[in-house]
Amino acid sequence: METKKQRIDLSILILVCLFAFISIITIFSASTYLPDYLGNLALKQALWYAIGFIIVGIILYLKNDIFYRLVWILYGIGNILLTFLLLFATPINNSKCWFVIPGIGSIQPSEFMKIVLILTLSVVIHRFKEKHPQPTMKEEFFFLVRCLGIVLLPSILTFLEPDTGVVMIYFIILICMLFLSGIRFRWFLFGFLFVGLGLGFLLGTYFFKQDLFIQLFGTNLFYRLDRLLDWQAGVGLQLENAMAAIGSSGLFGHGFNHTPVYFPESGTDFIFAVFASNFGLLGSLLLIILILVFDLKLIILAKRTKDNIDKYVLVGIIGMLVFQQIQNIGMTLGLLPIMGITLPFISYGGSSLLSYMIIVGIILNISKEKT
């Protein structure tokens, strides 16, 4: 009996290679204003990409089933690492988000926790739908409580680091995957109503009863919220200089390695501003088109894939990537709050890049079996 030959989707791999090229040259340009002690970040990013492609090859060899079988072990390891961060990690910029490994760099467990949550929720949702094809309200309620508990544990640990942006990504992943699961729409209405009331109380006390806010939530949350809402005024060195660099770039930009002004986090959070200032409106549109094509290919793959657990995984990945893309570019343009969220595949970062390359491996495995 003739077996069907499986082939990976090479177009996805080509897009990732284009992202790698754009990332490395943009980080090289950003290095103009970065301190010397950081070293050659463009070279480091190239090395991280090389390691990432090796990881993709390993995942293609192992298949995705190994992740689905070991998902609870991965979930446990992820939460243990987040706990160890709070207990033992050295603070960097008043945050305990990274393990610093001499000679290698820093590792950020929350980046990998995003993938672990996608895999864990996919397995839980898939098994629930198999066991309860037509669930009752009571069965759905306990299912939702379980999913919420799975996300709450790493969310609390990550929030305490503190890293509010990643916590938001966790819940975006949860919402997207629950929406695909086909649970009753009223649960979303209840959830949004509950969140709306909570945010209303939080913002009401923040704006009108600041003393009460500090008594209830502490000064840490007050300053975090204060920083989050500062974007509306369009002030701050990062935002002002990033917008000046973008606004002055014109149609074709200032040219490669010609970033006109300094702004902090130019290689990470504000990488899009560096690229836009170098290559102008046309270059920015080209990058956005490449991002949209990549997202569209994932959406098409999710529609075509026959395995439900793979569908859940892809929807979680799509929700995470699209949120980060919109948030990062939006905050760079002053349209959204500055939340420290990086641009996938483009911003510098070993942990974040390796986590995205793990995702690429998972996606390519699914593409081999989509039909």
Keywords, separated by commas or semicolons:
371 residues; mainly alpha; two-stranded antiparallel sheet; 13 helices; 71% helix
Task: Give a short summary of the structure.
The chain is mainly α and 371 residues long. The chain has helices at residues 10-30, 41-62, 65-69, 71-88, 109-131, 137-159, 164-181, 185-208, 210-229, 237-247, 271-304, 308-332, 350-368, and strands spanning 99-101, 105-107.
Q: Categorize the overall geometry.
A: globular
- Please describe the biggest sheet, giving its number of strands, its sense, and whether it closes into a barrel: 2 strands, antiparallel
| Cα-based radius of gyration, to the nearest Å | 21 Å
Oligomeric category:
single chain
Instruction: Give the fraction of residues assigned to helices.
Output: over 70%
Indicate how many domains the architecture comprises: 1
Strand order of the largest sheet: 1-2
DSSP helical segment count: 13
Task: Note the gap between the termini.
Answer: 18 Å
Query: How large is the share of residues in beta strands?
Result: under 5%
Class computed from helices, strands and strand pairing: mainly alpha
Topology as H/E string? HHHHEEHHHHHHHHH
Number of strands: 2
Mean pLDDT: 89
Spans of 5+ residues with little confidence (pLDDT < 50)? none
